[in-house]
Specification:
Elements lengths: L4 H24 L1 H4 L2 H20 L3 H25 L5 H28 L5
Helix pairs in contact: 1-3, 1-4, 3-4, 3-5, 4-5
């Protein structure tokens, strides 16, 4: 089960940019900071979805790649948030783990949607 760099790099870039935007906005906006967990996991789900759609790989690789992309982009965002003093050390572990899980779900959804998409001519 090989992961595709073709889908990995752009999905990781999109996910990381969204995570960083959320963290930087949330650092100064309490309303956004109070939604770090659900927004961060949603971003990881989106990143996993994008990986699966762009990589066009097997279901297992889509799920694994989604988990990797979702977890990595979250780890980077949470690391910045930790550096800014907005989250505790425990969130580095828990947030990354939960985001990897939602990234895997996004990868699965992206794969299933890709299977059902009409063939391009």
């Amino acid at each position: 089960m090989a992961l595709s760099r073709k889908g990995m790099i752009p999905a990781l870039l999109v996910g990381t940019l969204l995570q960083l935007a959320m963290v930087l906005i949330g650092h100064n906006t309490v309303a956004v900071a109070s939604l770090f967990a659900p927004l961060g996991m949603a971003i990881s789900l989106i990143a996993g979805f994008l990986y699966a759609r762009w990589a066009r790989t097997t279901r297992g690789a889509a799920v694994l790649g989604g988990a990797v992309v979702g977890g990595l982009c979250a780890l980077i965002g949470i690391g910045v948030s930790y550096y800014l003093g907005d989250v505790t050390t425990w969130i580095l572990f828990l947030g990354t783990l939960s985001s990897a899980f939602t990234g895997a779900i996004g990868g699965l959804i992206g794969h299933v949607v890709g299977e059902r998409a009409p063939a391009q001519v």
